[in-house]
């Protein structure tokens, strides 16, 4: 058997292991957001924006839930903080980041790996979650954290009305 065939065969045997090793080195950052059941006569699903603010006050969109079926961005500006920081300059829908409103319950949001890979080790960040509901209220919850690829993260916060329990977890 020629040497090149042996090398190729050995590399093919190693390739799956290398792929797993590469995947394991990436840190996953996941947020769970609870939309509580409210005792109101007319309940509307909230619009929700989730973004990450860095030490330089740069903002990185993570997720936006809105009424995509109408293709109408009119009410997005009611997510005031998000709208001022980046919403007004975006073209909706944002591929991979925007989606429909969600029902009552706990929802998981995965921070894109490309974003977590760009975070600075030891820097202070804040996960911002803003919710607004038609004929309802508006609420913003901030979850500050220090980014470290080597250390796991498990932080909880809670809203008062429009948002319930929020957790931010990082697994290595």
From TrEMBL:
Superkingdom of source: Bacteria
Signal peptide: 1-26
Keywords for the protein's UniProt record, in alphabetical order: Signal
Pfam family, one: DUF2271
Name the record gives this protein: DUF2271 domain-containing protein
Organism: Cephaloticoccus capnophilus
Taxonomy of the source species: Bacteria, Pseudomonadati, Verrucomicrobiota, Opitutia, Opitutales
């Amino acid at each position: 058997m020629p040497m090149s065939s042996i090398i190729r065969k050995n590399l093919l045997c190693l390739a799956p292991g290398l792929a797993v090793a590469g995947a394991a080195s990436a840190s996953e950052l996941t947020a769970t957001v609870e939309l509580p059941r409210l005792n109101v006569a007319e309940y509307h699903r909230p619009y929700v924006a989730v973004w990450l603010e860095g030490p330089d006050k740069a903002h990185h969109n993570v997720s936006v839930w809105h009424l995509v079926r109408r293709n109408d961005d009119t009410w997005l500006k009611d997510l005031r903080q998000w709208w001022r920081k980046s919403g007004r300059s975006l073209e909706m829908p944002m591929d991979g980041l925007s989606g429909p409103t969600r029902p009552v319950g706990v929802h998981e949001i995965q921070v894109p790996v490309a974003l977590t890979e760009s975070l600075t080790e030891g820097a202070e960040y804040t996960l911002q979650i803003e919710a607004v509901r038609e004929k309802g209220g508006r609420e913003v919850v901030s979850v500050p954290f220090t980014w470290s690829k080597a250390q796991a993260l498990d932080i909880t916060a809670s809203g008062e009305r429009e948002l319930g329990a929020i957790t931010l977890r990082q697994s290595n």
